[in-house]
Amino acid sequence: MKRKIAVLGATGSIGKSTLDVLASYPDDFEVVLLSANRDLQKLLLASRVYPSAKLALADIGLASTADAGPISFWGPEGLLQAIRESGAQIVVNGIAGSPGLLPSLTALETGADLALANKETIVMAGPLAFALAKEHHCRIIPVDSEHSAVFQLLEAHGPDALEEIILTASGGPFRQYTKEQLEQVTLTDALAHPTWNMGGKITIDSASLANKGLEVIEAVRLFAVNPDRVKVLVHPQSYVHSMIRLKEGSLYAQMSRPDMRVPIHNALFWPEIRHCKFGRLDLAGQALTFEQPNEDLFPMLPLAYKAADLGMGYPVAYNAADEEAVAAFMNGQISFTDIGRVVAEVLQSQWPCEELVLQSILDVDTRARITAKKAIKEHSR
């Protein structure tokens, strides 16, 4: 029996990798929904392979274009309706940023398993998402390569044996830069990631280590551990995706080539282990190196630990401030190093939040963005 699957963010990096995986398993999955933000032509191209899939586009401004006919659902609300009506048994959420939150929660409300690449869902509303998954008897399966790795390692060894989680980071393009060099970083520099091919915002987050900061918060929530039990090591080769240390001292690592099709494949078939042709790694002749991240030069990482420690609405505020600051950097309003300054200023405020109440989460998000925009204005060039 084929499992019905919805792919959200089908034209982005995660979505395209998901469709690549699905193409290898036509007898296992039926694609019932494809969504995109604004890339209508790429969505229509993807739909040629899956002509029975419903299509949803977030950018309602394109509804009047000549090619809009095949689109069944428009705008953010239309996407939520599409998820509810799709009958999907598994939803892959590859939407970038906070716009992925409500689609994740809606998918869980339908009882679909959630293959989650949208880390903001857990950062902003982890407790709420877990409660919905429990209520509707469905599963949240991480697709981020780091959390997928930890997920698999804990499946093998059990959470009771865990001492600490070690997330790896490529270090981005600036890991050997000085403070003076970081002050001069351009948008073009920041978009040149040495290992992964990703969207613009997440590439900049990787350069600033904000992406790793979000992943620290996500790991704390996904695996129910205190922040001091989540470590980060810079590993430029990106072959080791994460490690766990057990209480008896042993380290266990999950390794593959840096290919998002591997964690996507694992999420789609979990708990079954199926043959995977992607990301196979031959260690012969390879060198693996690890180093501590420079938290003085990359403050987004220690700021994430601060947000994780404080809890409540602080992770929401961290994410909102980062999204606003990155957008301002991409628009030329602030410098690369101002991203960390803006987020630090936002986290100086108080951010109470009822973590199981969606409106409380959204209120914090709104207020944090207002605060961030004020800080951006002060730092504008």
UniProtKB/TrEMBL annotation:
Reactions that this protein is recorded to catalyse: 2-C-methyl-D-erythritol 4-phosphate + NADP(+) = 1-deoxy-D-xylulose 5-phosphate + NADPH + H(+)
Residues reported in the UniProt entry to bind Mn(2+): 144, 146, 215
Binding site for NADPH: 11-14, 38, 118, 120, 199
Gene Ontology biological process terms from the UniProt entry: isopentenyl diphosphate biosynthetic process, methylerythritol 4-phosphate pathway involved in terpenoid biosynthetic process
UniProt KW Metal-binding keyword: yes
Record-annotated 1-deoxy-D-xylulose 5-phosphate reductoisomerase N-terminal domain positions: 5-126
Cofactor (UniProt): Mg(2+); Mn(2+)
Pfam families: DXP_redisom_C, DXP_reductoisom, DXPR_C
Protein purpose: Catalyzes the NADPH-dependent rearrangement and reduction of 1-deoxy-D-xylulose-5-phosphate (DXP) to 2-C-methyl-D-erythritol 4-phosphate (MEP).
Family per similarity comment: Belongs to the DXR family.
Protein name per Swiss-Prot or TrEMBL: 1-deoxy-D-xylulose 5-phosphate reductoisomerase
Organism ancestry: Bacteria, Pseudomonadati, Spirochaetota, Spirochaetia, Spirochaetales
